[in-house]
Amino acid sequence: MSTAIAHALNEGLRSVMEEDDKVLLIGEDIGRLGGVFRVTDGLQKDFGEQRVVDAPLGEAGIVGSAIGLAMAGYRPVCEIQFDGFVFPAMNQIITQLAKYRHRSEGRVSLPVVIRIPVGGGIGAIEHHSESPEAYFAHTAGLRVVSPSSAQEAYDLIRASVRSDDPVVFLEPKHNYWLKGEIDRSAAPAPIGTAKVVRPGDDLTLVTYGALVPTAVKVAAAAAEDGRSVEVIDLRSLSPIDDATIFASVERTGRLVVAHEASQTAGLGSEIVARVQDELFYSLEAPAIRVTGYDTPYPPSRLEGDWLPGLDRILDAIDRSFTY
Amino acid sequence: MSTAIAHALNEGLRSVMEEDDKVLLIGEDIGRLGGVFRVTDGLQKDFGEQRVVDAPLGEAGIVGSAIGLAMAGYRPVCEIQFDGFVFPAMNQIITQLAKYRHRSEGRVSLPVVIRIPVGGGIGAIEHHSESPEAYFAHTAGLRVVSPSSAQEAYDLIRASVRSDDPVVFLEPKHNYWLKGEIDRSAAPAPIGTAKVVRPGDDLTLVTYGALVPTAVKVAAAAAEDGRSVEVIDLRSLSPIDDATIFASVERTGRLVVAHEASQTAGLGSEIVARVQDELFYSLEAPAIRVTGYDTPYPPSRLEGDWLPGLDRILDAIDRSFTY
Amino acid sequence: MTDDLFSLLSPDGVLSDAANASVDLRGMFSDMVMSRRVDTEAIALQRQGELGLWPSMLGQEAAQVGAGRALNPRDVAFPTYREHGVAWCRGVDPVSLLGLFRGTTLGGWDPTANNFNLYTLVIGAQTLHAVGYAMGIVRDGDVGTGDPERDRAVLVFLGDGALSEGETNEAFVWAAAQNLPIVFFCQNNQWAISAPYSVQSRVPVAQRAQGFGFRGVRVDGNDVVASHAVTVEALEQARAGNGPTLIEAFTYRRNPHTTSDDDGRYREGAMTDDWTTLDPIERLRTYLTTIGTDEDFFAEVASQETELSERLRAGCRALPDPEPASSFLHTYAEMPADLERQMNDHLEYVAAGEADPA
Amino acid sequence: MTDDLFSLLSPDGVLSDAANASVDLRGMFSDMVMSRRVDTEAIALQRQGELGLWPSMLGQEAAQVGAGRALNPRDVAFPTYREHGVAWCRGVDPVSLLGLFRGTTLGGWDPTANNFNLYTLVIGAQTLHAVGYAMGIVRDGDVGTGDPERDRAVLVFLGDGALSEGETNEAFVWAAAQNLPIVFFCQNNQWAISAPYSVQSRVPVAQRAQGFGFRGVRVDGNDVVASHAVTVEALEQARAGNGPTLIEAFTYRRNPHTTSDDDGRYREGAMTDDWTTLDPIERLRTYLTTIGTDEDFFAEVASQETELSERLRAGCRALPDPEPASSFLHTYAEMPADLERQMNDHLEYVAAGEADPA
Ligand SMILES: Cc1ncc(C[n+]2csc(CCOP(=O)(O)OP(=O)(O)O)c2C)c(N)n1
Ligand SMILES: Cc1ncc(C[n+]2csc(CCOP(=O)(O)OP(=O)(O)O)c2C)c(N)n1
Ligand SMILES: [Mg+2]
Ligand SMILES: [Mg+2]
């Protein structure tokens, strides 16, 4: 039986809540409503209002109180309702959550997970389609992860809740209803590693989240042109699993990185900068970024064109092969 | 008579306040105290409490009210007391200030300047030595600038206040007392351009803010080894003046970028990514970043070693020449 | 929680003698009916796939029209995303309200044309903009002069949920400490999406103001006459230099949060039904009928409604798609070189017709 | 603003009959004297270049010792950066307070060892941590059981300036709505650096609580007996499940904001002088002398002071510099590969002795 990403998250949360009664959830509308995307559906009914907390409407309060709960021995999982609404919590995330282990010289762990539905392409109004990952990836002390399939969702949410580091957990909302099989018995990969989703020899295509299925389609299309594209799902956006990326590009000699977030100071630039430094002599073409443009997210009537998609990624691949 | 950067900023602010009575200042302790770095010294006395506003202790309030003042036709200049205290204002900066022109389809300009003393090396306590520029540079709709000398400070603050875009103005606090001559009559460079601070032929060294004087020393030291290093002061951290950088690297074939902020998804990565894409065939070595490490800013006893300095930059230059 | 509500027009349509005799009750009635019609049509357009989403104001017409009509033209309003009735009173073309929800724009109107700002979707953020604008009014010297052509104030809207955001409370701090010409108008519709007001607070909204040292007033938000009266009074105080007021208009969100919401998951229909019987329009209709208002008046309003409906339907479909270049054009006052390059790339894609993502 | 202050020990050293007879006045005296000595020594160490900075608590000893001594061992305190007196009462080694200001650490002690959290420098941020901790206590079932070995509460400190931060107000929202076992202890020392309290608010700090629907109490913050009594009472209410209290301890920051501050730029010495005559320690000394306390007691305290001074001076200089690897080691629970590479590069630099920036 195949499971949607949103349900896989729900199942994953349920399972860690069953295993560890210190796990609790805090967020706006996550209780009776089950969250606007229903990721927490039924959990308040089964675990009660003390463990699935309908928060007052304040994101600083959500993350700040989660920090306090973690200090008191709990493992809180916060939900931020949409990408664009995480910013009121930025002070707690950047000055407190990310830095507390360091401040306390390793004495205090803050195992807080911050779940955020991210990304565009759903025809939404402003603030509901953004990709804020770079803000978090630039902040040392946070782990940033994003699943791309039901299996990854199930594994990663469980691993994130178990992590002793704070984890920003980015859910590709465009693909919440994408289904896949889940193996619930397999030992999940440790948090922090990338995954080769489709092997290939001629070019490495790195992406994450909602763009992973697109990247697989890109690879299939490129294969028709006789180009063998290796697709890597970052999974961990910070820290970045250099080893997997380097090993691939060393073989292929070509790199394209794709994400929805704006280009400037985005993750694509980071990966490109790392690769060109490590593999200067291996690269046969410049490493190319295919990203959202350096504008605010446009009105939804324009998002189809604004977002990086199949064609732009394929064109980048073509361009790579012109070198 | 030579002027310190802090005084040049004071003078620049005074001059725009004299020229345009819509310019006003808002910040914590900027009035009678003149700001903790005295950048606004004497301005409340001369322009009154309505134009130099001692704000309640809330950064969201400072930026949010500045937005409203801008809507009412004013040109507010906010002061955030230290780099580490800008995060409570992040929601207003990212979701409102940066996006309002876009949201209003160009109908509403928000000429707000946010001054922030940034950077380390002053032996301070936590949150007083950080370099948050990447958060702003990643946010489309903001201009981000940083002066490196008294002349730049005077020119840039004036240009920033006159800009119809919101400007995040990063003041290199380590060099507040660095002195230089100011020509008050020269037409300042338009905001948005980089500057070749020292010409050279063999390698391009890009940096900004407090590291510019260090970079000039680096170039002098490299010259002794017979290496001619061109130093570029970005001045505008966003948008980036690609043309100046490209023109230089095209000639030199080598690039080192230095900044105090952490590496991952920092500005160095962005510049490197751009250059390797544009100048793939010109580069004779990988473009190298010399940055703060991917940790929170350390206790001040460690900052001397943690910060990128003369030696690390020189070593990066050496490394570049090994290719 | 309803004991201490100020009211003038009772639920069964009886008008208190204390009501200001010169108030334009017919105008209020018409505004409420017309703005409800905007709401109803928009919901229909959403069902037909013409809008992606619509946040309904059903049940909140009295609060909004009462407040909206209290504004002078020079006063400035800062709405949330639900103030369709206030927009109506300000003279904003209701067709332009639809663009944001159709995805053709993030704004849709010129905020300076009617002194009605853009909708703000980030809860609470607009309260600080309103504070800043009020600071601007003070600096313009347009407060407390006694000159009715000069004194101005700001009216900012917020929901009960917004009371929990830090930014809203900072707005209270600034407004109180600087005694600003601002009125906070909170429609306590008792829900923030699925969260009943009890999630936010155990005491009435209006009480919050006391803690910051300014006036708080509770009014029956389904009573347009009372909502209007308290807002007129609060705005007068503000314009006169007597500082801020927080008005709590106690009302009820009768529809789901937006057309995407499923309120059956978190509330019983019964309470919604109760509030339906407290309908603000019916209340005023009863009164107007009681005092013998001509049938022609009601017929005239009805015909304007029909006209409006048609205009909305046609206008919605005619809303132009934004230009592909528009986001690039409006990010900065002057376009940076790299962004121009990005725009040109983008326009080439669009021209080639191959930009749609997989 | 001082009319309604609760007080038990008058400025001239007269103790009210209402004071709890069992209170350990000698202990309070000793704690105030010792924590003042910590403060004085730290200022001296700063002058000698041993500390980069020190935020003095001079004048606030009564508020802090009153509050600090009201805590049970299981209660948890969340300080700002000025609670040296509370740290003293909690049994935190005062030498460890110095590391943060010497630059050898950003923390300096184990927050779980004495239930005294790390200093928080970001104004207001700790109020939300305290709220979360209190939510944890509720979930542990350690509130309102009536078992004095079980019930716990949180005591969080904040300044008058912190009342203006959004986060502080969100903490009030959460504490009130969830009726949490938490006490907010605000030392209104009348200044936030150079900003007099009038920049933040026109009404007393304690009044803020009313707006959120919980208790607010004003106490003479220079009266250690009263400060203690109100905190004991508020903590008892909290532990019993009767929800939060905001205590305003009205006092005065007699020194500049920190050793880096120049308060001559923004305030007159006269007001500081007035408050010097209200010294909290002298007040209690007068009372203790009046009731004939043995000279030996005062001599004993003085000798402990001397010993403390020496320990602080020696301890400060002996504070170890952090390991060059330490920031890398403490960023993540498990070090990521790239960070390990960065660390190794860094350690090589440090070993080569060439890392100092120009
Ligand atoms: C900062 C922020 N957080 C979360 C949201 C998501 N959200 C949209 S409306 C809403 C509820 C608002 O409730 P209220 O303030 O009572 O206004 P109402 O919708 O009832 O008019 C929430 C949580 C948001 N828009 N902004
Ligand atoms: C978020 C934030 N903004 C600004 C500062 C800078 N700052 C440090 S202390 C201070 C004043 C605090 O005043 P108050 O809360 O009254 O505490 P006190 O220093 O009087 O004890 C300010 C503005 C800060 N630490 N954090
Ligand atoms: Mg509501
Ligand atoms: Mg204070």
TrEMBL record, chains A, B:
GO MF entries: magnesium ion binding; oxidoreductase activity
Highest taxon of the lineage: Bacteria
Cofactor requirement: thiamine diphosphate
Keywords linked to the UniProt accession: Oxidoreductase, Thiamine pyrophosphate
Pfam families: Transket_pyr (PF02779), Transketolase_C (PF02780)
Residues covered by the Transketolase-like pyrimidine-binding domain: 3-178
Presence of keyword Oxidoreductase: yes
SUPFAM superfamilies named among the record's database cross-references: Thiamin diphosphate-binding fold (THDP-binding), TK C-terminal domain-like
Keyword NAD: no
Coiled coil: none
CDD domains named among the record's database cross-references: TPP_PYR_E1-PDHc-beta_like
Annotated InterPro entries: THDP-binding, Transketo_C/PFOR_II, Transketolase-like_Pyr-bd, Transketolase_C
Protein name as catalogued: Alpha-ketoacid dehydrogenase subunit beta
Organism taxonomic ancestry: Bacteria, Bacillati, Actinomycetota, Actinomycetes, Propionibacteriales
